[in-house]
Design goal:
About 75% of the residues lie in helices and about 0% in strands. The chain has about 240 residues and is an all-alpha fold. It has one domain. Helix 1 packs antiparallel against helix 3 (about 75-120), helix 3 packs antiparallel against helix 4 and helix 6 (about 165-175) crosses helix 7. The longest helix is centred in the middle third of the chain and has 48 residues, at about 75-120.
Length: about 240
Amino acid sequence: MEPVRSPLENEEYHAALFTVRRAKNYLWWLIVLSLVVQAAAFVSVRYVGVIDDAPQLSGVAQARNEQATTAPADASDAKTDDNAWTWYEVLRWALPMTKFIAMAAGMLLVLTMLTAVQLSLVGRTGGTAGFIGGFFWSLLLLVFLIPWQQVTGSTLACGALYNLDDLIDWTSRMVWDAKNVTILTKVLYYDRFIGYPVFVLLLSIVVQMKFIRGWRRASLSIMQADLREPVGQNDTL
């Protein structure tokens, strides 16, 4: 006969699952915000050109200026250089930081989902199928968060996260050497900086939905257990 837990035990399991859910939400938002920052950096560099006039990109800027009309330098040009330098320094620190945050949050998210699985199994709270599904999807999410281009040293395998140097290298070839760019290179470029982050964002949404499914079933099971009286309660009068 399956033992009936006391209301205090049900409350403990529910509190533990609530803590897991809160940690999962924090980690999920860190991953999403990191992806948003990296996407904003791509748009700023590729389409806005916030670092085109940075002194650090003198070689790229020179290739760009050869196609433009030559004009004498003035105060506005100096101000533009200062703004570009500021944006360059901000992105140089922001992109590696968000990459680290997203990777760390991804690893902790996997452990959090595993904890939810263990709680559902030990406490028999229900929702195990949803938690296990979220756990395996979080593993897949972590795989795409890892910057494989730095781990393996190859451009054939890469992750959804990148540094400013990667973005500048790909963008410079797309913009300044556009005549020699093939269709395949363009597809890989936009897949690298748009397709991968969007795919990872979709994976994170799947993880969220799987956890919500498990959480709802576990909460319902605990609520139903609270409505049942423990065995032998009416015998002690």
